Amino acid sequence: MAKKRIITLCGSGIASSTIVAQKVKKACEEKGIDVDVKPIAFRELQGEILHADLIISITPGLKVDNVPVVNGVSFLTGVGEKNVLDEIFKILEEGKK
Questions:
Q1: What are 12-64's pLDDT values in tens digits?
Q2: CB-based contacts of 83, cutoff 8 Å, min separation 6
Q3: HSE toward the beta carbon, residue 6, CA cutoff 13 A
Q4: Residue ranges of the PTS EIIB type-2 domain (predicted)?
Q5: How far is the C-alpha of 50 from the C-alpha of 26, rounded, in Å?
Q6: Which CATH number do you get for residue 16?
Q7: Closest of 36, 16, 14 to residue 77, by C-alpha
Q8: Where are the beta strands (DSSP E) in 4-68?
Q9: Is the whole model's pTM more than 0.85, yes or no?
Q10: What does the radius of gyration of the chain's CA atoms come to, in whole angstroms?
């Protein structure tokens, strides 16, 4: 599988998105999925979206054409984290855009 690019998204691109990025990168590495995970702020999304295979947003309800979006709140709360990781692995392994 080719290296996948994941964007984690929050208001500042510093705190929440970085925590989520670290957790997702570690989980993908443990699963054997080669990823580049980049935390960014919402204001940077338009410049980064063309190269993304997946977006993990801390703010629910984000919709983007041609790129799957996953709600990343569970990585901050710990509630439902495994289910979200399974969803991420499925998207990356199927190569959905």
A1: 888 999 999 999 999 999 999 999 999 999 999 998 999 899 999 998 888 88
A2: 74
A3: 30
A4: 4-96
A5: 24
A6: 3.40.50.2300
A7: 16
A8: 4-10, 35-41, 54-57
A9: yes
A10: 12
Count of domains observed in the chain = 1
Q: Tokens representing 9?
A: 């998204």
Please identify which residue in the block is written with the tokens 């509630």: 79
Going by C-beta distance under 8 Å and a sequence separation of 6 or more, which residues neighbour residue 93?
A: 1, 33
Secondary structure letter of residue 27 according to DSSP = H
Give the range of the structural domain holding residue 89, as residue numbers without chain letter: 4-95
List the structure tokens of 54.
């997946």
Beta bridge partners of 35: 4
**Other Cβ atoms closer than 10 A to 48:** 15
